[in-house]
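Table S2 (text version). Query chain:
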Amino acid sequence: MLLGFDDRLFRLIGMPVVAMVIPLLFFRDIIHDAESYWGKVPFSFIHTVVTWQGVRAIFIHLSRKFPDWKDWKKRMKWIIGSVILYTGSVCTMVTLVAGIFSIQLDPALVPSPISAYGASYMMVLALGAVYESIRFFQLWKTTAMEKEHLERAHLASQLEGLRNQVNPHFLFNSLNTLTYLIPEAPEKAVRFVQQLSKVYRYVLESREDQVIPLQTELDFLKSYIFLLRERFGDNLQVEISRVDRKNTAIVPLTLQMLFENAIKHNVISTHKPLKIEVFMENGHLIVRNNLQKKNQVMDSTGVGLQNIRDRYRMLTDQEIEVIASQQYFTVILPDIQIQQEAAVEKV
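Corresponding structure-token output:
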């Protein structure tokens, strides 16, 4: 883990290969035939193994001592200093041993110091590049994964906070509606409470879901519209049509909150009925109401449309589009796909 990968196979294959390549690259001036070449390979192998294992141990030790990114300068200074001293010492000793035990004790077969040290440091440079590159990549990959995990946790926390805003907001508006009904129509108030329990059950059950099938939201909306019609009667007109797209999802309670927003900000009366339309166009779900603003409205709780924007922003790169003209207030919701069918009925 300190190196960034399991290097056993790399060493098993790499050491013999490097040991055979070094004489061909750096000692060609003292290699005249196959016999002189194979005579150098054992010393080259010893040199490679001792240098490789020692440098590897230095890398492991310093990776353990300086594991953080912020310590990379200290780590590199220690690596460079330690590797230069160690490699120089190993090269000196191996060169002396090779000179003593050289075939036929011929000084001409002993590598020059420049060739020996050059071969040693080139090998170390190549090894360092491999180990550091792999370690750097693994650290980057781990850091990226940790960052992604933290971002997801942060988004989940934000989303949970937004979900928690929906329940009290919904209950507050429902209780206001019930307050209007109790003195005016007690029987309607009883039916309202019965339907409210069904609606609020859906609110509680769907609050843990990031998205739900559009069909499920529309089924809930039917119950919610029943509650609204108990209060407003024919002064509120709802039309749901052309909503036949399959495999479409929606953020829970989006339609309910858009209906609340329309009712909150617009006049609803016999002479000025409020008409809310829900339909699909160009693959987007559209909620539109005729615009007839109230002169005075209750203070906003800050949930409403911004809550919907924030929840969609956490799930898709597509933005909610809001268009306010002189005649209509229109909200265009992004398209979210799910792998299941959703048959949509008209209300």
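Notes on Table S2: The chain has a mean pLDDT of 77. The radius of gyration is 38 Å.
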